[in-house]
Amino acid sequence: MRQGDATPPLGDDRPLEGLRVVELASVLAGPLVGTFLAELGAEVIKVEPPGQGDVTRNWRLAYEPLEGPSAYYSAANGPKETIQINLKSKEGQNQLSSLLNGTDILLQNARPDALPSLGLDPKELANRYPNLIHVHLLGFFDQPGRGGYDIVVQAESGFLSMNGMPDGTGFRMPVALMDVLAAHQMRSALLLALYERERGGCGAYIETWLDASGFSGLVNRATEHLVAGQTPKPLGALHPQIAPYGELFSCRCGAVIVTAIGNDRQFSALCGLLGAEELAADPQFYSNPIRVQHRETLAQKLEPYFASLDAQFVMEQAMVHGVPLGRVKSVPEALSDGTGRAMTAEFEIEGHPVRHIRQVAFRLHRNGSRTT
User: Fold this and answer.
1) For residue 148, is it within any domain?
2) Do 142 and 174 sit in the same domain of this protein?
3) To the nearest whole number, what is the mean pLDDT of the chain?
4) Residue 6, Cβ neighbours under 10 Å: how many?
5) Could you give the CA distance from residue 308 to residue 41 in angstroms, rounded to a whole number?
6) Residue 104 bears catalytic tag
7) What 3 state SS string does the chain have?
8) Domain identity same for 201 and 256
9) Is 185 in contact with 213 (CB distance < 8 Å)?
10) Considering 13, 54, 179, 211, which one is annotated as catalytic?
11) Tell me, what's the pLDDT at 6?
12) Of 191, 205, 198, the residue nearest 40 (C-alpha)
């Protein structure tokens, strides 16, 4: 995998070299885990069914070229070796058995009732490969046979009901966040299993669930009901407990700024930055709970101050005074910035040059010393 013009977070460190991973998983969550491990130096062998291969090879934008790997497939499949095996045949299952000899981690997302017919029965695999860490992604925690789909989980875990504008219907999140959350659960579980194996244990069979992963991401929106007894409602970009947080303001240059004011000191500093010191002393806005109650009035009063200034000036002063603000960027704009360039990897899939976003977003400093 080639690097662009910015050093990636991990640098040249490859701490998982020597680890072998077989990835049977398709679509997004499992392949993201495979890419994560490959970026860390593991050998990852992606197994796809003959013919079509991973279904996301055919998931394309309306006007995306038909040649080469699709953008969706490229997002989750990085530096891997890809082979085709028909696991529904005896010959294919024998090929998989040979492949699993010496394999450390197996990733798959097959239906539970299909496991025996694919040669993936967890008990049989554990007996045959006692050191294998077998990670299985399922759809629903309390409905084992039900397939998991991101938008369905968004709907049934409450996300869809609170993602949107206050006066409209729910919006699908612009990324398959349930899959991304499930990938994080799979990574955490397999790294724990690796740690236990290194301490003298053996392999493990790990179950993770798309819907349970989604529930883990509800965090404070869940406690709005569990603790405060309220039903979370869609608020657009607004934060339900903090103001001004998520309000969008247009500047004189046309750029849009988003606020992330988390405490009274930051609010006072924002007012000073904008030349609106009187708002910090206004009884309607002097503390966060009061600002939440009067957030619409506050936004109306802040609008002309932002509109009189250029975004570059506002952002520069925000950095100086410790005011958390952000400039709303398109995806191409974000990818052209320093972090975006560092997180972009360049590589080839079957001879076609592609780029995607890295899955490793950390850097190791062993014993506190920089090694990358």
Assistant:
1) yes
2) yes
3) 94
4) 13
5) 51
6) no
7) CEECCCCCCCCCCCCCCCCEEEECCCCCHHHHHHHHHHHCCCEEEEEECCCCCCHHHHCCCCCCCCCCCCHHHHHHCCCCEEEECCCCCHHHHHHHHHHHCCCCEEEECCCHHHCHHHCCCHHHHHHHCCCCEEEEEECECCECCCCCCHHHHHHHCCHHHHCCCCCCCCCCCCCCHHHHHHHHHHHHHHHHHHHHHHCCCCCEEEEEEHHHHHHHCCHHHHHHHHCCCCCCCCCCCCCCCCCCEEEEEECCCCCEEEEECCCHHHHHHHHHHHCCHHHHCCCCCCCHHHHHHCHHHHHHHHHHHHHCCCHHHHHHHHHHHCCCEEECCCHHHHHHCHHHHHCEEEEEECCEEEEEECCCCCCCCHHHCCCC
8) no
9) yes
10) 179
11) 67
12) 191
Between CA 354 and CA 321 the distance in angstroms is 41
The one-letter amino acid code at 264 reads D
Q: Which amino acid is at 12?
A: D
For 227-264, the pLDDT digits (tens) are 999 999 998 899 999 999 999 999 999 999 999 999 99
Helix axes 29-39, 177-198, angle to 10 degrees: 50
- The pTM assigned to this predicted structure is 0.92
| Cross-strand pairs, 348 | 353
User: 72 and 194 share a domain?
Assistant: yes
Beta-carbon neighbour count of residue 58 at 10 Å?
12
C-alpha distances (whole Å) from 131 to each of 23, 103, 176, 199 are 16, 8, 32, 12
Same domain, 92 and 189: yes
More confident residue, 109 or 366: 109
Compute the distance between CA of residue 154 and CA of residue 133 in angstroms, rounded to an integer. Answer: 29
Q: Which domain holds residue 143?
A: 20-228
Tens of pLDDT, residues 16-51: 999 999 999 999 999 999 999 999 999 999 999 999
Q: Which two tokens stand for residue 67?
A: 């040649």
- 134 and 271, same domain (yes or no): no
Shortest CA distance to 306 belongs to which of 290, 294, 319, 318? 318
